[in-house]
């Protein structure tokens, strides 16, 4: 098929490359000059395992990257829309880029086409866009086809989707979109058809539900610390129930990224716009913000409240492993508190350090924030090690080397990744999240 993907951000770039890999002729439209130049040279401006190799495989073969709007919108069979829809102050999504695209389609389109919304949009956006095109007699059918890509596993998710939602009022347009996914659904029928509004709502509902599981476990984890219960044992106990399952029930330092926070705010805004309070959604957000702040409480339990002159090692800065995305990352909450209180921070992250350097240029320039090229360099003379992102690189450290490098053997495990018994035996002071059944956790909480 001949198709155009608008927007070379995370969703658009992954979609364009995977669809080109299957033999489609794909035109990727990008307006940002720096990003456009990088892509045309085969360089990916984001961190996603395997994506740059795939781009180089399809570039200038099945995939053309351009900034020419007329070329991109002239006569595609499909237009996949992956423009940004950021949060506004009130939680609603900013659809300005989408409406700018609609005007460009009006100006440049020469043949009937199907416009497929991959961007996460407010419920009712597809209907409003369809009405806009019909009022102007523009031959476009709007379909909502939400993305469910996980950062760090996006190629696998696109190539082997668990489900494909097609929200459309026009059966012919829905059939065209379904045909696009045939190479990805040969082994199992995963295509679900519904109306546009239902597809739009489904994306929000999925992310809100997953976020609720995380906040639920984090709330129980705090209670567990007060009643001498290890939340990890509880996680295993409830995760073995098939009705619950094992996914998204890990206590930790909260969720971040571009999807869960933004989509929860948008869903809450939708409720307010209908005069309907949604206290459960508000509670999920409030719990998550508290969970990030609990990192500060935990470190105070280890180091006391005066951090001036202390050195603290951070392992992990991205909001999750296998990405360089630091948007609303829990690590940044602790990092800001450390810098504000005069601590020196020594940090390592396999992918996110350039983004952190750009976010905190003054701290980097002054030396208060030191971004280290390898994990152990971050430990030298530090008074505590804080694990904040569960990269594989950090799973099995050399604890004898860690002990030798740290000024004080203190570990804040924000992801419950380490064995508290092993560390206690070696002489470490350990704090995790919800490890209230552990003697070391109880002693540190009592002393705080």
Brief characterization of the structure:
This protein has helices spanning about 10-20, 35-40, 50-60, 70-75, 95-110, 125-135, 155-160, 170-180, 195-225, 230-240, 260-275, 280-305, 330-340, 355-360, 360-365, 400-405, 420-425, 440-445; strands spanning about 1-5, 25-30, 65, 80, 115, 140-145, 165, 190-195, 310-315, 345-350, 370, 385, 410-415, 430.
Walkthrough of the structure:
Residues 313-420 form the UDP-glucose/GDP-mannose dehydrogenase C-terminal domain. The protein has 448 residues and is an alpha/beta fold. The protein has two domains: 2-194, Rossmann fold (3-Layer(aba) Sandwich); 228-447, Rossmann fold (3-Layer(aba) Sandwich). 44% of the residues lie in helices and 13% in strands. The chain contains 18 helices and 14 strands. It has helices at 10-21, 33-40, 51-58, 69-73, 96-108, 125-135, 154-159, 171-180, 196-226, 231-239, 260-273, 279-303, 330-340, 353-359, 361-366, 399-405, 420-426, 439-447, and strands at residues 2-6, 25-29, 63-66, 78-81, 113-117, 140-144, 164-167, 191-194, 311-315, 344-348, 369-371, 384-387, 410-413, 429-431. Helix 9 packs across helix 11 (260-273) and helix 11 packs antiparallel against helix 12 (279-303).
Feature tags:
single chain; 448 residues; Rossmann fold; 2 domains; 14 strands; 13% strand; 6-PGluconate_DH-like_C_sf; UDP-Glc/GDP-Man; oxidoreductase; EC 1.1.1.22; UDP-glucose 6-dehydrogenase activity
């Amino acid at each position: 098929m001949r198709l155009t993907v608008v927007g070379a951000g995370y969703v658009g770039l992954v979609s364009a490359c995977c669809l080109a890999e299957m033999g489609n002729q794909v035109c990727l439209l990008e307006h940002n000059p720096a990003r456009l130049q990088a892509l045309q040279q085969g360089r990916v401006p984001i961190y996603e395992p395997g994506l740059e190799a795939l781009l180089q495989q399809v570039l200038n073969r099945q995939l053309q990257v351009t900034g020419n709007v007329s070329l991109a919108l002239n006569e595609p069979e499909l237009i996949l829309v992956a423009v940004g829809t950021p949060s506004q102050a009130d939680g609603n999504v900013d659809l300005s880029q989408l409406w700018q695209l609609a005007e460009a389609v009006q100006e440049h389109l020469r043949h009937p086409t199907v416009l497929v919304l991959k961007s996460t949009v407010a419920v009712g956006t597809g209907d409003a866009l369809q009405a806009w095109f019909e009022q102007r007699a523009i031959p476009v059918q709007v379909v909502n086809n939400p993305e469910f890509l996980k950062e760090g596993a996006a190629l696998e998710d696109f190539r082997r989707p668990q489900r494909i939602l097609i929200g459309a009022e026009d059966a012919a347009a829905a059939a065209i979109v379904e045909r696009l996914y045939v190479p990805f659904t040969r082994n199992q029928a995963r295509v679900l058809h519904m109306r546009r509004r239902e597809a739009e709502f489904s994306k929000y509902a999925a992310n809100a539900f997953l976020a609720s599981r995380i906040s639920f476990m984090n709330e129980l984890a705090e209670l567990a610390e007060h009643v001498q219960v290890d939340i990890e044992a509880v996680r295993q106990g409830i995760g073995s129930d098939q009705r619950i399952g094992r996914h998204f029930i890990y206590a930790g330092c909260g969720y971040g990224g571009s999807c869960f926070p933004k989509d929860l705010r948008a869903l809450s805004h939708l409720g307010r716009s209908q005069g309907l309070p949604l206290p459960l959604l508000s509670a999920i957000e409030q719990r998550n913000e508290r969970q990030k702040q609990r990192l500060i409480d935990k470190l105070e339990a280890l180091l006391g409240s005066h951090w001036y002159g202390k050195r603290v090692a951070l392992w992990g800065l991205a909001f999750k492993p296998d990405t360089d995305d630091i948007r609303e990352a829990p690590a940044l909450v602790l990092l800001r508190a450390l810098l504000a209180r005069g601590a020196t921070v020594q940090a390592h992250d396999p992918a996110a350090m350039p983004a952190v350097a750009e976010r905190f240029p003054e701290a980097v320039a002054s030396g208060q924030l030191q971004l280290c090229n390898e994990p152990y360099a971050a430990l030298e003379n530090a008074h505590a090690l804080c694990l904040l992102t569960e990269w594989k690189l950090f799973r099995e450290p050399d604890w004898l080397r860690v002990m030798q490098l740290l000024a004080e053997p203190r570990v804040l495990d924000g992801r419950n990744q380490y064995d508290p018994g092993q560390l206690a035996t070696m002489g470490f002071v350990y704090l995790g999240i919800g490890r209230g059944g552990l003697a070391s956790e109880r002693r540190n909480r009592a002393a705080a």
